[in-house]
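User:
I study polymers; will you set down one protein's sequence and backbone structure tokens?

Assistant:
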Amino acid sequence: MMKPGLEEPRAVKEHLTGVTPCPTLTVEERIEKRKRDKEFMRAMNEYVKKHGLLSDDPFFGGI
């Protein structure tokens, strides 16, 4: 007998955010995604090098 107010344990945990997992990518898709990610990081590093940090925190004195 369970204590009052306790639910039975669930076999599967539910996602609280309601976000569905990403589909599995093929090898080619992973390679392309990695290239895009690297290009984005390179562009952001270049921007920060030219313009400084992207921050609204007065301590860092960003944008």
User: Anything to note?
Assistant: The chain has a mean pLDDT of 78. The radius of gyration is 23 Å. Residues 27-51 form the longest helix (25 residues). Residues 16 and 63 are 34 Å apart (CA to CA).
